[in-house]
Amino acid sequence: MGGRVGSEGKIHDAPRVNRADRDVLALGIGIAAIIMFVGTGGNVMPQVVHSLQGIGLPPDRLLSNALLLNIALIIFGLRRYRDLTAEVQERRRAETTARELAETDPLTGCLNRRSIGPATDKLMAACAERGEIVAFMMIDIDDFKRINDANGHSAGDKLLQQCADRIGELMPERGLLARLGGDEFACVVPFRAATVERIDDFADRITREAARPVALDDLAMDVTVSVGIARSDSTAMPDRPVDAQELLHMADVAMYVAKKSGKSRHCWFEQSMEQELRFRNELEQAIRTGVQSGEFTPYYEQQIDLQTGQISGFEMLARWNSDRFRAVGPDVFIPIAEEIGLIADLSEALIRQALRDAKDWNPRLTLSVNISPVQMRDPWFAQKLLKLLVEANFPPNRLEVEITETCVHENIAVVRSLITSLKNQGVAISLDDFGSGYSSLAQLRSLSFDRLKIDRSFVTSMPGSHDNARIVEAIASLGKGLGLPITAEGVETTEVVAELQRLGRFMAQGYLYGHPETAAQTRERLAALGLLAGRSEDEPDRAGSEPLSGAA
Ligand code: C2E
Ligand code: CA
Ligand code: CA
Questions:
Q1: How many helices (H) and strands (E) does the chain have?
Q2: Burial of residue 58 (number of CB atoms within 10 Å: 0-12, 13-18, 19+)
């Protein structure tokens, strides 16, 4: 397995100076002692030998003592030398350990964010000599935060370790594997530019391996990863070769795109992604400031009772009142607001305003609001909504909350308890975009919705598509069977109205009756129809005094 240990490092200099000083001192003492030993020994030793042979005088005492002192100094020097050597070795070991710790991720034993850059630069230099390039891959576990929150941090840690092990086993020789922090891994793999399919293959193996169920304690988890890849011969920097830092950035951008396009896949970096990402960042920033400065405003779409032709209420739809981003619709900004954690603030401001606007309308007119799945997961959501109703002094039975069919499947238990609390307060619940998900009859019954809204994709094309007409017919009879009123969305032509009327009783929404309008336009429309609340003296309440045709 390649590269889970740190690259060669440099030993730091400061402690070396002291040690070198002491080395020199010990060496000096040793050499001086040896020279003196040779000098005095040359005089004393023959005298000792002669004296032992009985042919001379005993050695000079002073010289003998000097010789003994020399011997002692040599022994001291040798011991000092040995101690120093041991000390140096110990220090080296400590330095190696410290360096490895600084370069390694303690949880997984991979390289870390600090060390992967220099290691990649070094690998690229070595590859250049062999005519190779490198692929820098950013690997990110999908929905790791959710897994971590739901199962605890120790389960999260084990998952990260298993992930590192699985990727580690796939690593080719000379490859590098690092954990960059959180649930992000990077691996760097050398390859020849002509064999790029090897890298596709490798990335496929990683996504496949990661998707094998992970057993953690008693839990079996399904985990997926998304991978972004950048190549070191990328044309991103036409005037010079890319460095590790730039590769990491490009792989990150590509990984982000892989997530956006559905997760559990890999994506190669392309220059256009950079622009998209920049736009997306600007969008995020503009949404943040827009929420604070109240740029998001409610618009209202009429809801018509096809039997009477009268307006029965309005669906509030969010619009962005921004010079630069006016064309960006809720299909785009709502999911971003969800992702950056602003949907609750955004929605609360819109609903607060909508309740205020709707108080001007005739009290028999209802107000429908859309609720995002993220808000449904908030255990205090029902409480927050009731607080808004109380603040606005708005009767709960004039409010309808729309939740989408797909949201119901994601959070069935949560949805059930939320529906119960809202219904207890008198708020009605509609199942939005019905037909686009997979609700079963049993679910529909058990969740006791107050209304089904047929997804507009079936309604708009009813006249041209026999299949869609049959689907609408089936939903109509399902509604009848369950005693649920039905709204058909996306009604654009009188032809569709005629078909719907043939099938039963419907409420209708759509461009046939006009596009969503501002609060002021809505007010004007209602004033013309005598459908204002009639709180002021010059605007008497003439609610329902004459039959209406909602058609614009
Ligand atoms: P939705 O709830 O299904 O809203 C209906 C969408 O269909 C609206 O698009 C509306 O303008 C459009 N529409 C209405 N009549 C017709 C028609 O005859 N033909 C066609 N082709 N389209 C028609 P819009 O306003 O762009 O909203 C898109 C989605 O954004 C909404 O779908 C809703 O899911 C979401 N949304 C809008 N406002 C909010 C909000 O305040 N909070 C949340 N959570 N979601 C919102
Ligand atoms: Ca809706
Ligand atoms: Ca809808």
A1: 19, 15
A2: exposed
* Residue nearest atom 33 of ligand 1, based on CA coordinates: 370
Ligand with the closest atom to the CA of 433: 3
Looking up tokens 């972004």 gives: 228
- What order of strands is seen across the sheet that includes strand 184-191? 176-181, 184-191, 133-141, 225-231, 266-268
Residue 311 pairs in a beta bridge with 304
Outline where DSSP puts E strands in 372-514: 399-404, 428-434, 451-454, 486-488, 507-508
Residue type, 235: T
Dist. CA 484–CA 170, nearest whole Å: 55
Give residue-wise pLDDT tens across range 200-229.
Answer: 999 999 999 988 888 777 777 788 999 999
Per-residue pLDDT at 14: 36
Residue with tokens 């042979």: 53
Instruction: Please state whether 541 falls in left (phi above 0), alpha (psi between -120 and 50) or beta.
Output: beta
Q: What share of the chain is helix, strand, coil (3-state, %, to 5)?
A: 55, 15, 30
Longest dimension (CA), the chain: 151
**pLDDT tens digits along 186-203:** 999 999 999 999 999 999
> Residue 412 corresponds to which amino acid?
I
Question: Is the distance from the beta carbon of residue 372 to the nearest atom of ligand 1 less than 6 Å?
Answer: yes
pLDDT (tens digit per residue) in 384-428: 999 999 999 999 999 999 998 877 876 778 889 999 999 999 999
Q: Please give the number of the atom of ligand 1 that sits closest to the Cα of 491.
A: 18
CA dist 326 → 17, 282, 290 (Å): 67, 14, 11
Confidence (pLDDT) at 237:
57
Q: 334 CB less than 6 Å from ligand 1?
A: yes
Does residue 492 have its Cβ closer than 6 Å to ligand 1?
Answer: yes
| Rounded Cα distance, 516 and 317, in Å | 7
- Residue ranges of E strands in 201-262: 214-216, 219-221, 225-231
Q: Which of 65-69, 81-85, 360-364, 442-446 has the lowest mean pLDDT?
A: 442-446
**Please, are residues 142 and 214 in contact by the beta-carbon 8 Å criterion?**
no
Return the structure tokens found at 4.
Answer: 């889970």
Q: Is the pLDDT of residue 78 over 90?
A: no
Mean pLDDT of 98-109: 90
- Residue 455 Cα: closest atom of ligand 1: 3
Q: pLDDT exceeding 90 applies to what percent of the chain?
A: 62
User: 303 and 314 in contact (C-beta within 8 Å)?
Assistant: yes
Task: Indicate the burial class of 292 (C-beta count within 10 angstroms; 0-12, 13-18, 19 or more).
Answer: exposed
Specify the DSSP element, H or E, that contains 479. Answer: helix 466-482
Confidence at residue 551, expressed as pLDDT on a 0 to 100 scale: 43
DSSP 539: S
pLDDT tens digits, 513-534? 999 999 999 999 999 999 999 7
* DSSP codes joined into one string, 84-137: HHHHHHHHHHHHHHHHHHHHB-TTT-SB-HHHHHHHHHHHHHHHHHTT-EEEEE
**What's the pLDDT at 545?**
36
319 lines ligand 1 (CB under 6 A): no
